[in-house]
Amino acid sequence: MSVADFEIGRTYNRRRDIHAKFGGQQQGGAITPSQHPLIFAITGASGRQHGYEDRWVEDGEFRYFGEGQIGDMKSERGNNAIRDHATDGKELLLFEVQKAGGLQFRGPFDCAGYSYEQARDREGDERRAIVFHLFASRR
Fold first, then answer.
1. What is the span of the domain harbouring residue 84?
2. Could you tell me the CATH number of the domain that includes residue 58?
3. CA gap 49, 46 in Å, rounded
4. Into how many domains does the chain fold?
5. Tens-of-pLDDT digits for all 139 residues of the chain?
């Protein structure tokens, strides 16, 4: 399977369709397989319990919270991968967790930058969160 095999709107199995074919971290919202020029960004309502407030805004932008459940988010690992995906020649693919547990492919996206927001972490404490500004890819 290659990235061209993912259809926007179709639901996939995380372990079978992503990890078994591409590798990458088994948990977390950013999957960065080392052998493929891809980054899988996973969003879903369950992230709210861990302090993530991903959301769509009016102009078609998707605000995607970075990694880090406790304390201030840092520029490291998955956060750097998302921020630098275009420079690194990697495609950023957005998937949304569905109620039945599958991942619906929302499409390829580009990171147009990021900002910081005050938000609550998993323990309910205030922290500085990294929020990526994602737009549907025009490639």
1. 3-136
2. 2.30.280.20
3. 6
4. 1
5. 456 779 999 999 999 999 999 988 777 789 999 999 999 999 988 777 777 889 999 888 999 999 999 999 999 999 999 999 999 999 999 999 998 789 999 999 999 999 999 999 989 999 999 999 999 997 6
